[in-house]
Amino acid sequence: MENQPRLASPGCRNPGVQGLSSTRGPSTAQVLKVVMLILLGGVLLLWRASPYQALSSGSLSQPPLFVLFSPVLIPAALTIGLARSQVLDVGGISAHGRCLSSCR
Predict the structure, then answer these.
(1) pLDDT in tens, 32-70
(2) For residues 28 and 20, is the Cβ–Cβ distance under 8 A?
(3) Interatomic CA distance for residues 8 and 61, integer angstroms
(4) CB neighbours of 66 closer than 8 A, spacing ≥ 6?
(5) Taking a C-beta distance cutoff of 8 angstroms, is the pair 66, 73 a contact?
(6) What is the spatial distance between Cα 84 and Cα 95, in angstroms, rounded to a whole number?
(7) What's the confidence (pLDDT) of residue 12?
(8) Three-point CA angle 78, 55, 80, nearest 5°
(9) Radius of gyration of the chain (CA)
(10) End-to-end distance of the chain based on CA atoms, in angstroms?
(11) Would the pLDDT of 27 be above 70?
(12) What are the CA-CA distances from residue 53 to residues 41, 47, 59 (Å)?
């Protein structure tokens, strides 16, 4: 029984755990550190959100610009689509004709 460590009495204060049982509040330096970390976190959060803000403002400004330029864009899209389909049709007809002539 002599080799077992002694248990401290309930009224005894453990000198190794001074920070937990301290009645004083945080120091000014600790408070300033926490405040600065919170401010830095807020600044970094706003800085990270700026590309998303730019994306949303661009998405909001795009429909009016599309309506303004639609007299140019819609005919251009139709012209490009028709020209593309004609090229594909001619190529398909040509390939079909070559296949038919070589099969006979």
Answers:
(1) 999 999 999 999 988 888 888 888 888 888 888 887 888
(2) no
(3) 72
(4) 73
(5) yes
(6) 17
(7) 54
(8) 10
(9) 39
(10) 110
(11) yes
(12) 18, 10, 10
